[in-house]
Amino acid sequence: MEETIERELGFQVELVHEGLAKILVPKMDLYLREDKVYEPAWAPVFYNPRMRFNRDIAILFARAYSVYGKSTKEGQTPVIVEPLAGTGVRAVRYAIEAGAQVIVNDIDPRAVKLIELNARINNVNDRLQVFQLDANELLSRLKREGVRPTIVDIDPFGSPAPYLDAAIQSIGRQGVLALTATDTAPLTGTHLKALRRRYDVEPARTAWEKEQAVRILVGYVIRRAASYGYGTRILLAYYADYYVRAYVELLKGAKRADESLNMLGFGGYCPSCGYTGYIDKSTTRCPYCSHELQRVGPIYTGPLCDKRILDRLLKEAYEAEWLAEHKRVIGFLEAYSAECEIERPYYRIDKICSILKRNMPKISQIVDRLREHGHKAVKSIYDPRAVKTTARHPEFLKILSEL
Fold first, then answer.
1. What CATH code is carried by the domain that includes residue 403?
2. Does residue 189 lie in a domain region?
3. How many other β-carbons are positioned within 10 Å of the β-carbon of residue 10?
4. Residue 70, pLDDT score
């Protein structure tokens, strides 16, 4: 049977298990780099095993939002659109593990054949509606036909920016955009011209570059959504491995759009004293030492999670022991629950200590001392050398120097 499938597809396959799904994927041993690491971009149909964690969170979110989201009553089947599906692993998992109806698409005919095979293997043919279209063409078609999805999941190789406008317009009065961005070199400020060109921001590379990447992407979604009359609510946004992931709820209404735009601002970093925070658009000098700031913006300046949905995600995660990376998911959600309510960007302690010409204390000592002084403080998930705190900059430096 496998030989017949391979003849039909035109390439060799293997069966992998992910969550509750069994998925045929291109035989990974055939697409190894010189260092023997699998390179998914070389395979005839895209499958990235390193995205299992990303897909685990996506499944949990779909399960949680069916309860949390006002547009989807509890027990009602969510409708999820995945326009860039590859092997269909995410779509199949949405169908099996979140009980969703999935509109799944890929422009490559080989991918479409593989998606259909994987749907049959997992007995979810009736839950997957498969298309072979350009991603934006599919989204525009759904809008014309009056299909109003619960979630549109854009998971490209690179930036989601080329698909964003069509995805926003495909949402009805309320729904969620789930976005992955793997173009982290521009978003973190490594490639400044690409950052300006792709996301229309004043570019910089701060010391909190991973959180910068998240806040740039979310800020860009807010601006694009507002242009179509949507307000936004950030339900979950984070950086993991080598990508940014965001779940943004869109709510129709000009007043909501205006309120969302008020959550945009500029981020600043001072290479002289280490100041980290948000600044006015006109501010170019550090408010503490007057050194020229590294400025980036507009970016989103609010909380990166909604506590209610994060609590629901944790509840779902505790019960879903079948997740592909269950232990990591639990650890991440528990840690992020404490962190994402602190809206100011993180401090890179090694960089601050270099500025102060001090040895770097243990992160746990810094967190404990900040809490002793009445401030919120946590070790950041973004970087093992980072701390997030509500302490004002001078007091933070004073506490760090004392340690």
1. 3.30.56.70
2. no
3. 10
4. 47
